[in-house]
Amino acid sequence: MTGLARAFGVQLRVLVLALTWLCWPGDAHAHDVRPAFLQLTQTGHARYQVLWKRPLRGDKAPPLTPVFPDDCHELSSSEALSVQGALVQRSLVECEATLSGRSLRLDGLGRTLIDTLVQVNLTDGTSQSLLLRTHHDTFVVAAAPSSLDVAGSYVTLGVEHILLGFDHLLFVLGLLWIVHGLRRLVAAITAFTAAHSLTLALASLGFLRVPGPPVEAAIALSIVCLAAEILHGLSGRPGWTARRPWAIAFSVGLLHGLGFAGALADVGLPEAHVPLALFSFNLGVELGQVGCVLAVSCLLRITRAWREQLPRWLERGAVYALGSIAAFWAAERSMSFL
Predict the structure, then answer these.
(1) pLDDT tens digits, the chain, 338 residues: what are they?
(2) How far apart are CA 36 and CA 83, in angstroms?
(3) Annotated domain spans of the chain
């Protein structure tokens, strides 16, 4: 082994260990990338029902607080309740003038890594959706919101979900490990896309209802099975995934679509833009997925000569790490409903 290959092998081992630490459930909860959600529904001239939802990590919610203009006051407020991994609170706010054209702020957003999806529903039937991030904690309630705002917000959510949802991303990247040949890879990715698009739409529109925890556990198990298939291939005994990648990708894609729908349900769909928001979210998922596949494919091509000189145990160790992480996720998620 050349000195360059030896050095690259050390770097790759460090990378595998770092990815294992980052993806380990104790530090980076897979699929725990839910944004906060603020919904304002106009019920009168200057009166609004407020739904404020913050994702829980353990028993704690991020320290975020909506700040209304000074002339607004709270008429009533419900007790904050823990509902399906989120802290939910409802209140009724009245202002001296309508909020249209006025600024609202989310205090504490700059000190967290949590994005916030804002949805405003007005009495004339129009709605506004936008995404607040750490560097942008103020928004203006639009008098005439555009469809472009909705599309941009949900595309961003979709991209973030696939990039930060380690379980979905690991399965897609695992396909690169086991499926050889551009045509077969394209067929597998296309089948996965078609399947998760189908169940995402059916579940989001209310035609299909499946409990979230079993779905999340099954998604983790799908990664365990994929890791086992990769090991079989490395041992010269290719399994079903290697022989029929499109069929396996389609079957597992149905599960992942239900997982995407669960994430989308956490923030909801704007009533006036349901088809657009659903399409935009799915488009964002695909953009993130394709971007990751292209980036990793280019990296593998560039490092091909070096990788061929690396010891075989290193590759097997990475696969065992992938399977172990997924098995931990599966066990952890199963405990929530068993």
Answers:
(1) 444 344 334 344 434 433 443 444 443 444 445 789 999 999 988 999 999 999 887 788 888 999 999 999 999 998 888 887 889 999 999 999 999 889 999 998 888 878 899 999 888 777 788 889 888 889 888 765 567 878 888 898 888 888 877 788 888 888 888 887 878 888 888 888 899 999 999 998 889 888 888 999 999 999 999 999 888 888 888 777 778 888 888 999 999 999 888 878 777 777 667 888 899 998 998 898 888 888 888 888 888 778 777 787 888 888 899 899 999 999 998 987 77
(2) 13
(3) 3-30+161-334, 37-145
Closest CA to 150 of 48, 279, 30: 279
Q: Contact, 217 vs 330, CB < 8 A? A: yes
SS3 276: helix
DSSP state of 57: B
- What is the bridge-based pairing of β-strands 116-121 and 36-42? parallel
